[in-house]
C-alpha cells in the first residue's frame, strides 16, 4: 500500500485484495490513527438497498460478539456512499487452502471441528445464525488457530424475513442443509449441518455434493457417505451433525462436546410431542337405570335317590296325619270309648276304635 492511496472513512488506507464475495471485497489495510494492520471489508458501489441493510445488520451483530474463535470487529460505516467493516487481520490462510493438498488427518479435523462447533455454540447462544459456513469462511492463522469469519449473510434468528426476501435462498449451495434446499425454515441446525459437510470434506479430501442445482437436490435423496475408518468420536459427531431431519440433529454445543472429547455419547434432541387433542364433550343421552347383574348361584349336586325318596315318604305320612287329626272347628273330636280294662286283651278293640276314628 502507498501513502497516496485514498483513505477509507478518512482513516484506513487500503492495500492488497485478500478475497471477495458477491457483494464485497476484503483488503489488507492500515489504520492510520492506530498504525496497525487491519482487514477492511468494502461493499461495492453497486450494492442495493437490501445489500446495505444486510451489511449494517452484520456490523451491528459482529460488534456485539466476542469469542476467541471469532474475528474481532474494530469499526464500521453504513453510509450510503461508504459501506465498510474494519476487522482484525488474521495472517494465514483458509481451511480451503489446507485441503488443497489432500485429506487432513482425522485427529486434526476433529480438533478444528470441535473449536468451530464451540464458536457456533456461542454465536447461536446470541441468537445469530451464520447461514454460510464453508471452508473459505474458516480462517487458519499462522499460529494454527481457527476462526469463523464472514457473517455477511448472517442474521438474528428472531428477525427471519426482515432483511431477506422470503423467496431468496441465502448461502452456498454445496454446504446447504436439506431444509435450506427445500425452502424450509433455516435456523441453528443448518449451521451444524454445514459444519458437518465441511469437516467431512476435510477428512475425505472431496466435496460431498459438488456442482450446482444437482448438488442441491442430491442431499435430499441420499445421505452423506461417512467413512467407517475414521476415529469413533469424529464418526459419531458427523453422523449426528448430518442428520437429514433438523429436529434430529445435535446442537452445536453437543457437537463441540463430542469432537473435543468432553463426552463420548450425546442424545439427539427429540421432537416435541404433538399437541393433545381438545377434550371431548360427551353427548347428552336419555337416562337409563343401571344394569344390574344377578349373581349366579352354584347348583348343588344331586343327592342319592334312596334318601330323597325316604324323606318324601316321611313328609307325606306326616301331612296325612296332620290332616287327619287337625281339629275341624265345628265339633270336638271325642276320645275312643273305653274298651275295657287296660292290658293286652283290650289292644284289638282299641286298634279297631282308632281305625274307625281315622276313617270318620
UniProtKB/TrEMBL annotation:
- The Protein kinase domain, residue ranges: 12-267
Tell me where the transmembrane regions lie: 305-326
Q: Which InterPro entries match?
A: Kinase-like_dom_sf (IPR011009), Prot_kinase_dom (IPR000719), Protein_kinase_ATP_BS (IPR017441), Ser/Thr_kinase_AS (IPR008271)
Q: Which residues bind ATP?
A: 41
Residue ranges of region Disordered? 269-302
Gene Ontology molecular function terms on file: ATP binding; protein serine/threonine kinase activity
PANTHER family attached to this UniProt entry: MITOGEN-ACTIVATED PROTEIN KINASE KINASE KINASE 20-RELATED (PTHR43289), SERINE_THREONINE-PROTEIN KINASE YBDM-RELATED (PTHR43289:SF34)
What is this protein's record name?
A: Serine/threonine protein kinase
Query: What is the protein's species of origin?
Result: Saccharopolyspora terrae
